Amino acid sequence: QVQLVESGGGLVQAGGSLRLSCAASVTSSQFAAMGWYRQAPGKQRELAATITTGGITNYADSVKGRFTISRDNAKNTVYLQMNSLKSEDTAVYYCFARNWSLRNYWGQGTQVTVSS
Questions:
Q1: CB neighbours of 64 closer than 8 A, spacing ≥ 6?
Q2: Core-most of 3, 39, 93, 111, by most CB within 10 Å?
């Protein structure tokens, strides 16, 4: 059974940095893409960043230039480096993985709170 376990969330001041990690319970080569979505209070879940097995990245406009997604296939882990954090980045961040059959898997979520 596929499990995605996130870590690295927390409370940070505006302008600070955090790095999220998501470890998969199976080899990440089973996933065509991995990434992060986020959901702020009262809002819909939205894409933050994704990365394919081949390393192609995609970012939401709101995080471009501030967030960097990376993937370590040897460790079955995807990372999200978040710099220059803003209060509007406050959300629950969910790890996401899509296998080659287009089935989606989700982590349990990790809270990121940015204080202004």
A1: none
A2: 93
Distance CA 17, CA 112 (A): 11
Report the chain (116 residues): mean pLDDT per 10 consecutive residues.
95 98 91 96 96 96 98 94 98 97 96 96
Whether 106 and 4 have beta carbons less than 8 Å apart is answered as yes
How many angstroms separate the CA atoms of 30 and 26, rounded? Answer: 8
Round to the nearest angstrom and report the end-to-end CA distance of the chain: 40
CB contact at 8 A, 47 and 29: no
pLDDT of residue 64: 98
Residue 31 CA to chain centroid, in angstroms? 15
